[in-house]
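Local shape tokens

___
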Amino acid sequence: MAGHSKWANIKRQKAVVDAKKGKTFTQLSRAIILAARNGIPDPAGNFQLRTAIDKAKAAGIPNDNIERAIAKGAGTFGSDSSNLEEIRYEGYGPCGVAILIEALTDNRNRTAADLRVAFSKNGGNLGETGCVSWMFAQKGVCVVQGVVDEDQLLEASLEGGAETYEMTEDQTAEVFTEIANLETLNQTLKDKGFKVTDAELRWIPSNHVEITEHDQARSLLKLIDTLEGLDDVQNVTSNFEMSENLMALSIV
């Protein structure tokens, strides 16, 4: 799984830019709607909903908005969310980079058309289902901050059923596990005194495409930025690697 934290670093660097778009509110609200619809509308008994609410609160979404999103997911607040469906799209970016897009939409034709335009205008192409997903495996990930003793982290991670962990930056680690075990790992780490700042499902690439040219890097990051800017898009994941210096020079 070497190199999988590259994407996490990219996401963190882009977070400041993304937050200014106001799109974060739409994404997080829809995540709450979906979590409430897929399980019980009570965060105490719905891990997916609980983590979605935590992310929404961290982003500054008002409690009224959060409660309204839960009600929409539960079907007790209008019917405008009843047609929302999860769809995964796949495609290629510049240099043959593989891209996975997770969308939540009430009109799959509109979403597909928007994605096709975004790809074609930025040096990529929207592919068929299965064209790149074979290169990825979905895992549960806990992000842990304030790690001062790796041995303690390793012990807690093993106890929680983790597969592996990786230090991504100073005192920050990402701990990986099977999807079904994410809630158990999250709770075990917290019980052991670790500060878990995020618990999510993430697509991990099995191979990587290294980007070394500035023009290629800029085109690729522009494509990803455009895809993430679409209202129906929840997450975008890719399998590229590039140096932090090149990323800093090329980021949109």
Summary: Residues 13-74 form a domain with the Arc Repressor Mutant, subunit A fold (CATH 1.10.10.200).
